[in-house]
Each structure stands twice: as C-alpha cells, then as structure tokens.
Amino acid sequence: MGKFYESIPPELVPWMLKQEMFWVATAPLSPEAHVNVSPKGVRDSFHYISPTRVWYQDLSGSGVETISHLRENGRITLMFSAFEGPPRIVRLFGTGTVHEFGTREYEELIPPEERRPGSRAAIVIDVHKVGSSCGYAVPYYEFRGHRQALLDFFVSRERADQKDEAAHADKGLKAYWDENNARSIDGIPGLQVAAKAPGVPTCTDIMKRAGASADGSIPATATANGSAVSVKTGQSVGRRRVEELAVAFALGVAVAAVYVRLVGSV
C-alpha cells in the first residue's frame, strides 16, 4: 500500500544510502519537449543532508537534460528500488538547484579529494513530498559491481585539460562540455559556468589513491575514492565463481573417493 510523507522518514535513510543506483526524472515545460529519466550508479554519489534536503554528484554525460530542465522549472523526482530483500520503491519529489563546477557551492559540497572524474555539478534537491510503495513487481537482481568505463573516459579528458591550461584542449573535459552539455536536446540552456571556470578539472589525488595506471584506468578492485570495493566487477566476480566451482568440484571428487574406499573395505 502506498504511503506519502512530507519529509524523508528516518528509517528510510540507511536503505537509500545502501542502494547502488537510483533514477532521476525531470521534464521541460513544453508539452512537445522530451521527458527525461536518467540512471545514476557511481557509488557514494547520493548524499543525505536533512529530512527535506539531499544532493548528488552529477557526472558528465553525452546529454545535459536534468540540468537544463532544472534551470527552466526546477521540478525533479528521485526514485530508489529494492532489488534484494523486502520489496520497496521510494520516490523523493522536490525542487532541484544546479551548482556547477567552478562555483563556490560546488566546491563546498565537493572538495577536490571527493570529486569524481567528469564531475560537472552538484544537484541539491529540496524535498517536499516522499512516496513509498510496495515494489512487488520489481524483480530480484544481484549486484555484481560498478562499471569503470565512465570514470576512465573522463580521467583522460581531464588530463588533456591539465596539459593545456591556457585554452580548451581539443580532447579535454571543458571542450566536451562545450560540445555536448551546453543545451538539451530541446535547446534549453545547460551548463553555463563549468566550461568557462578558471582552473582545470582534476582528480589526480583520487586517482593516485585509487591506484590508477599511467593511462588513467582504475583497477577493478578500487573505487574512485580509493576505498576497496567489497563486491568486485562482474568480470572479477565471474572469475571468482569459476574458481569456487572448481574447488568445490575437486572437494566433491575427493569426498567421493574416500566414500568408495570406506564402502569397499566394509
């Protein structure tokens, strides 16, 4: 049965922070324009401030729909779903504010040691309604790990900017913002400050702590903030399971051999 609250119930906070992904939905005012839904899946992107305020670190992508829609009308909904344990869906309805890279608010929320590669904004949501529903139709899924491709891609972009501080590097992150994040697909203005901000985006300290290689790639066993991942990437998990099955098979053969000897000696 669905329930609604005026603020985030305390008992839901640990569950939301535990989720490995969530969804963000926004829409422009024009009925002819496009509604947007974006999945967010980098660990520790979502942050809780109070029962009526949350925020998340927004990473760069090929589009800028969420930021553009928020600049136009501010409406936003975040949705969390349970893929293990008891079924549950939680929606946070609110008004979003964009704090771009290069602004004081961004730097206060995201210090350099916590910034992810490609991070372009902090999205702060003032929550005015919370909806909790059953989620009975949501299937079970096993979490196997976060993809590193996005982080790896933007590490190389940021390094290009670091080599060309005087102007936008052709392959740098600021050039990427200019090309892909200036307007939404409906022409609504997107990033306005980040590409022109003084200084260059950098995650050097994060990459060093994560054990990044010379080309900026991140080991599968490390996160962008340098902490060990308790659940490895899908490839590593698959390899580990094969090894576990091989060990189990060998033990089974050994036990069967002992059993045959015991039965033969009776």
TrEMBL record:
The record's annotation in Gene3D superfamilies points to:
Electron Transport, Fmn-binding Protein, Chain A (2.30.110.10)
Where would you find the membrane-spanning parts of this chain? none
Q: Known Pfam families for this protein?
A: PNPOx_N (PF01243)
Record SUPFAM superfamilies: FMN-binding split barrel (SSF50475)
User: What range(s) does the Pyridoxamine 5'-phosphate oxidase N-terminal domain occupy?
Assistant: 9-132
Q: Which domain of life is it from?
A: Eukaryota
Give the InterPro entries listed for this entry. Answer: Pyridox_Oxase_N, Split_barrel_FMN-bd
PANTHER family from the xrefs?
A: PYRIDOXAMINE PHOSPHATE OXIDASE (PTHR39336:SF3), PYRIDOXAMINE PHOSPHATE OXIDASE FAMILY PROTEIN (AFU_ORTHOLOGUE AFUA_6G11440) (PTHR39336)
Q: What is the official name of this protein in its record? A: Pyridoxamine 5'-phosphate oxidase N-terminal domain-containing protein
Species of origin = Lentinus tigrinus ALCF2SS1-6
